[in-house]
Amino acid sequence: MTVLPPLSLLAPLVLLAVALLAITRPHRRPKALPALAEGAALATLGLALAAVVQLLAFGPQVVSLGEGILTLSLRLDAISATMVTLVAFVGWIVVRYSRRYLDGEAREGAFHGLMLAALAAVLVLVQSGSLTVLVLAFVAVGLVLRQLLLFYPDRPEAQRAATKFSLVWGAGDAALLLAAILLWVALGATDVAALGPLAQERLAQGDLPLAAGFAVALLVLAAALKTAAFPLHGWLTEVMEAPTPVSALLHAGIINGGGFLLIRLAEVVQTSAGAMAALVMLGGFTALFGAAVMLTQSAVKTALAWSTVAQMGFMLLQCGLGLWALALLHIVAHSLYKAHAFLSAGGAVQAVVAVRRPGPVAVPNAAAVARAFALALALYVAVATGFGMVAGPKSVQALALGVILIFGVAYLVAQGLADAAPRALTQRTALASLTAAVAYFGFQVVAGALWGPYLPAAPVPGALEWALVVLALMSFGLVAVAQALFPLWAHHPASAALRVHLANGLYLNALLDRMIGGFSAASKT
Hints:
Elements: H1 11-23, H2 33-58, E1 61-65, E2 72-76, H3 78-101, H4 108-126, H5 131-149, H6 156-187, H7 192-205, H8 210-226, H9 244-252, H10 257-264, H11 266-269, H12 273-294, H13 300-320, H14 324-343, H15 345-354, H16 366-391, H17 396-416, H18 423-451, H19 463-484, H20 486-489, H21 493-503, H22 508-516, H23 518-523
Helix pairs in contact: 1-2, 1-4, 2-3, 2-4, 3-4, 3-9, 3-14, 4-5, 5-6, 6-8, 8-10, 8-12, 9-14, 12-13, 12-19, 13-14, 14-18, 16-17, 16-18, 17-18, 17-19
């Protein structure tokens, strides 16, 4: 029986056809073009869902052209089908939102064309079946996104953000290109599905080439640059000069490219314990740093940008722990949440204005905080034991990640256990901790069933892995305790100074501004 090629391969072509039409109508109110753009995005979603049906019916498929290092191939499997559906859904929502948001803009037609071109490039990226297509798709995404960031080209802030983005993204492209060449030299293949087994086989035989080790290091570097990891995270917090739909597409889709890169080449990355350790340390620090800075921001969209920095850091941490299925689940959940958050940011401002008198805040003392963490961890252990008996034992890394997530709700439990807290608050916060534990293990079972068979299991922890797990637990635990005790030291002069430094991101972005002449560009206006 003849099997049709994956229908999702047609999705980029549909988008590009309408994007090319936009070249002829780049001006204000370009007749039917906005409606056509939304129709193309909706058709893309339909093709993505049809491809999921094809995958369930016929299994994974690959379409290839050429041979050797120049092989061009696109792949439909469980991972790419998930990402295609996610990108198509978010893209449709963003394009639909753009019809009203951009109505009457001087370059309205050009904007719709660029948005569709960006979606097409991302769809090619998540379906890439060879390193060549992967590299070319990343380059195309960067080129189109730069034009979107410069939608208002006369704004110095937009020029500065676009310049910083191009530098960081371009450096990631260069690292990825060199990694692809080294993998071809070391393993003789460019097919993303074949590279993992080849690397694992050579590792088991003890003759994994040194070039492969360098390639993995470059893959980690490329992923860190493309996920706005510390310390080159500043460009992501300055893209607000572009229209809101651009921010939504960037934070909900494009920024996930680095995580997708690691997940797609998970078996290759996992051959290097040093690379995995680097992801844990860099991702964990970025997550803590981004979350701390986010709490100091007064602008809604800027706070959301710093939230993305923190979330991407946490996703890198998950990859470093070898929890690949959970990292993919994180990408899906974060994309949906962040798209909604950006597109509804105006409503958040209205909600803040509507608040007249905030209610009383229960301030916990050190004893209440200690009881809260003990209660949250006890609930977590009970839930983990129950799921372990039903769904089988979990890896050390998965259990540790769950503890980190429980730390995130333990400070709420601390408020519920404060002396001044009403009984209802105590019950709600305890329920929040229990719900978080159940949800974590429940979603872990779902993610494992959907993507686990196509991704490597977490490595058996050795001395290095144990040390990293302990370090992560201590770091996130100390930050959670400090957050719970924040009302006790919030008015101390030292905390006020720290808040100023954090609000400015420890001035790392200012250093990059100086390197590219950003200050002088802004001063000319």
